[in-house]
Amino acid sequence: MTSLSKILNLFLSLSVAVFFSFCSAGEVEDVDFIGKNKDRYVSTSDANAKILLAEIKSKETNYSSFKGEFSMNIQVFVPKKDNFAVDGKIFYSKESGLVKIQLMDTFFGLVFSELIASPTEIQIKPTSTNKVTTQPMGDLLLQDPNTKKSIQLPFPVIYQYLTGSFQPEITSSKARFLTKENRILLEKSDGAYEYFFEEGELGRIELVSPLRKLKAVSLVKEKDLKLKHPPKSILTKVIPLGEEKENVLILIKMKKVSKTEVPESVFRF
After folding, report:
1. Which of 238, 249, 244 is nearest to 216 (CA)?
2. Strand 66-76 relative to strand 248-259, pairing
3. Is 186 left (phi over 0), alpha (psi -120 to 50) or beta?
4. Cα gap 80→268, rounded to integer Å
């Protein structure tokens, strides 16, 4: 089988199948979960929690509008280990909170699918059709091209990294803080999200969701010391609850980033 004939159903929503062409990729480095600490978490009224929030707030300007190009490597383990890669373009508008992602084959640079995400929903459109699929902000599904086994990708985690949309939530009364480790825990309807910060900047998100039957971790593998945001690379790992082996590792590497306002017209199909 040639590399171009490997097909990955990356954005599969409900009964709609959207297919993407991938080529073979290299190894993706594994990452471990940290998990919830057994120590007592405090509320936003705690003095140290207020100090941590102020430090995080001071970094808010890092999350400005941008456009860029990236590569994405996907490594699956179950039922057998395999690797795939795809290229893409990304656009983010801070004013609207919209993110647009275009996926392209790595050989010819042809766009074969597009995604537009807002804080509340995701729209998906393959370029081969005029049909647009709309779903609430939530999971996307990865599918092994050989076994057709589907794997959930918690897209809200990646969206929060790209946009900084976690900032309003961590100041709510529901947030709980472990300030000695710069952690903030949020129990949401779809699972428990824990945010880990380094000098006020988000370094890791961990999610445990019994409702969605998965746990996931997404972390900064390489910072961008000049632009600050987005990071040069983000690694995401997803495992179904109750299974010990990795289901999927996804490494997104930014190849080119420009801090610039993105016209509203970009966020259309």
Report:
1. 238
2. antiparallel
3. beta
4. 38
Tell me: cis bond preceding 119? Omega within 30 of 0 counts: no
- What does the mean pLDDT of the chain come to? 84
117-161: pLDDT as tens digits: 999 999 999 888 889 999 999 888 765 555 666 667 888 888 998
The answer to whether the pTM exceeds 0.70 is yes
Residue/partner pairs of 84-91 with CB below 8 Å, 24 or more apart? 84/6, 84/8, 84/22, 84/23, 84/24, 84/25, 84/145, 85/22, 85/23, 85/24, 85/25, 86/8, 86/10, 86/20, 86/21, 86/22, 86/23, 90/162, 91/66, 91/67, 91/262, 91/266, 91/267
**Would you call 67 helix, strand, or coil by DSSP?**
strand
Query: Any residues with CB less than 8 A from the CB of 178 and at least 6 apart, and which?
Result: 37, 39, 41, 42, 184, 185
* 3-state SS, residue 85: strand
- Determine contact, residues 183/205, Cβ cutoff 8 Å: no
The runs of H, that is alpha helices, within 89-165 are: 155-163
Beta bridge partners of 113: 103, 126
For 54, residues 6+ apart whose C-beta sits below 8 A from its C-beta are none
The residues with which 10 forms a beta bridge, in sequence order, are none
Question: Of all helices (H) and strands (E), which one includes residue 51?
Answer: helix 47-57
Cβ–Cβ < 8 Å for 103, 113: yes
